[in-house]
Specification:
The chain is α+β, with helices and mostly antiparallel strands and 160 residues long. The chain folds into two domains: 29 residues; 116 residues, Dimeric alpha+beta barrel (Alpha-Beta Plaits, 2-Layer Sandwich). The chain has six helices and four strands. It has a four-stranded antiparallel β-sheet with strand order 2-3-1-4. The longest helix is centred in the N-terminal third of the chain and has 28 residues.
Length: 160
């Protein structure tokens, strides 16, 4: 009986604190649904949107390019990223740190089909040269990703 007495005290206290603080905090901090914003970003009722996800991996000709040739290809890669972003097609891009899987970077495209993404990927000089290869699949994520192109320039220091 003594064990039950000590067992219930923490349970009752836990329920009290969960009810007193947890539930009220969730209600207070829960943002209001913004139908206009959801529509603007292309979100469905769950706030999700379809994208095309591209995993860039080390290609079969990665070791074939050195020095200035390699620098020029990657300068073209970066320029192409900027071009696709300016078109509103590329929402997110970024490299991976060195890893043992050959993962080099990611593109997330705001396009409807894998075929459309494939055409965009094929404009990349590092893909054309075989330095990188692309795995392309449909993907669902938060429609809030669509706000990244507007927000990112505001947090990136201008180059001198």
């Amino acid at each position: 009986m003594r064990i039950l007495k000590y067992f219930w005290a923490p349970v009752v206290v836990g329920i009290f604190f969960a009810g007193a603080f947890g539930q009220e905090t969730v209600k207070k901090d829960t943002p209001k649904y913004d139908a206009e914003l959801a529509k603007h970003l292309g979100g469905n009722d769950n706030g999700m949107k379809g994208y095309i996800f591209v995993m860039l991996r080390t290609g079969p000709k990665d070791g074939d390019f050195k020095g200035k040739d390699r620098e020029d290809l990657f300068a073209g890669h970066m320029a192409n990223i900027g071009r696709m972003a300016d078109m509103g097609k590329l929402i997110v891009a970024g490299p991976f740190d060195k890893n043992d899987r050959g993962y080099r970077g990611v593109f997330i495209f705001n396009v409807a089909t894998v075929e459309e993404a494939q055409k965009l990927v094929e404009t990349d000089p590092t893909i054309k040269a075989g330095i990188l290869v692309a795995d392309i699949v449909p993907w669902w994520a938060t429609a809030a990703l669509m706000a990244i192109p507007e927000i990112h320039p505001k947090i990136m220091k201008p180059k001198p």
